[in-house]
């Protein structure tokens, strides 16, 4: 995976200010710096964020992160992230995604974001997954896709997301990095997918984003098979709609983790003690275990993520799973095991060009 982070042959005053805890000087310089300058790798192979983290300057670490400094750059000599080099717990906590995020769980509304998988749903899933699989990935084809992604999805106030999308031309992995940033970008993308059916000829940006995920050959090395976890909060009545042997499909991209404990933490945070008149819990906390068996359904984005310790595997939209087990652990906690359905609609890929109208 190539890097678009620049390296300096010298060590900047800004780096030394971060290293030495000169917070006033850091604050003054930050206001006039680009993200590329903030993230620049110095002559010693580290960034300013590495230095502030290693030397224990919590306020400076927070300033850098709030300004969009990348959490995911390894220093050259030790291959460590800024998070790895922090000794103080106070600083380590600054790198962790806030628990207010719903990254590895639903939005807490209690509505299950699945749809039942019938023949029509399977046809829609196949269309999304393979709609452009034969277009090829020559330079002209990639330019065509990126034009729509930038035009329709590049409007964001988040500097990190904007930078990643702009840099996708030189490094396709930047498109996945944009998704891992904690910002409204991934939230809006998934809300659009979950609430709207995109027909042919509409919202090409979103369509091509999905196309990159499923079909770009560079992502083959990220393909993940195995068990991943995600939390969910559901009202009792919604859960009753699903039973062992039933097939479901996720409507949007789904952030999952290889670390069960992380998913459990996200699963329980939206649960309340509220009960119905006859004592039944209004909401249930649910831990879902998804077993992925097909290529390219899930991409292991752990090493691309700004939050690498979360061990994220990103599951593509319209992936079909069958419910294997529903186990009620307590009145308010349920575990569901789902196994991916075998793929039957795969289509041959070729490298044909298409006209860029």
Automatic annotation (TrEMBL):
A matching Pfam family: ART
SUPFAM superfamilies, per the entry: ADP-ribosylation, Ankyrin repeat
InterPro entries hit by this protein: Ankyrin_rpt, Ankyrin_rpt-contain_sf, ART
ANK repeat ranges, renumbered to this chain: 44-76
Reactions accelerated catalytically: L-arginyl-[protein] + NAD(+) = N(omega)-(ADP-D-ribosyl)-L-arginyl-[protein] + nicotinamide + H(+)
Family per similarity comment: Belongs to the Arg-specific ADP-ribosyltransferase family.
Protein name per the record: NAD(P)(+)--arginine ADP-ribosyltransferase
């Amino acid at each position: 995976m190539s890097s678009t982070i620049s390296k300096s042959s010298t060590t900047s005053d800004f780096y030394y200010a971060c290293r030495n805890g000169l917070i006033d000087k850091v604050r003054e310089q930050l206001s006039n710096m680009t993200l590329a300058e903030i993230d620049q790798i110095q002559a010693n192979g580290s960034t300013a964020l590495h230095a502030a983290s290693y030397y224990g300057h919590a306020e400076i670490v927070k300033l850098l992160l709030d300004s969009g400094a990348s959490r995911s750059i390894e220093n050259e000599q030790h291959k460590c992230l800024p998070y790895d080099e922090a000794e103080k717990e106070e600083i380590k906590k600054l790198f962790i995604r806030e628990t207010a995020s719903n990254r590895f769980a639903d939005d807490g509304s209690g509505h299950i974001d699945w749809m039942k998988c019938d023949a029509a749903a399977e046809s829609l899933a196949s269309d999304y997954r393979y709609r452009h699989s034969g277009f090829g990935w020559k330079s002209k084809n990639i330019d065509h896709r990126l034009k729509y992604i930038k035009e329709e999805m590049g409007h964001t106030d988040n500097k990190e997301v904007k930078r990643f999308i702009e840099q996708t031309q030189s490094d396709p992995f930047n498109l996945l990095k944009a998704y891992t940033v904690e910002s409204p970008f991934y939230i809006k993308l998934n809300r659009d997918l979950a609430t709207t059916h995109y027909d042919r000829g509409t919202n090409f940006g979103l369509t091509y984003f999905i196309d990159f995920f499923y079909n770009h050959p560079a992502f083959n090395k990220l393909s993940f098979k195995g068990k991943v976890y995600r939390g969910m909060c559901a009202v009792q009545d919604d859960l009753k709609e699903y039973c062992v042997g039933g097939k479901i499909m996720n409507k949007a991209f789904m952030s999952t983790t290889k670390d069960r404990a992380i998913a459990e933490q996200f699963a329980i945070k939206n649960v309340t003690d509220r009960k119905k008149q006859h004592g039944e819990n209004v909401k249930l906390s649910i831990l879902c275990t998804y077993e992925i068996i097909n290529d390219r359904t899930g991409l292991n984005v752990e090493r691309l993520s700004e939050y690498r310790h979360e061990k994220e595997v990103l599951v593509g939209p319209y992936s079909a799973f069958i419910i294997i087990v529903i186990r009620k652990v307590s009145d308010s906690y349920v575990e569901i095991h789902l196994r991916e359905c075998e793929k039957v609609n795969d289509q041959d890929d070729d490298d044909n060009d298409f006209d860029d109208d």
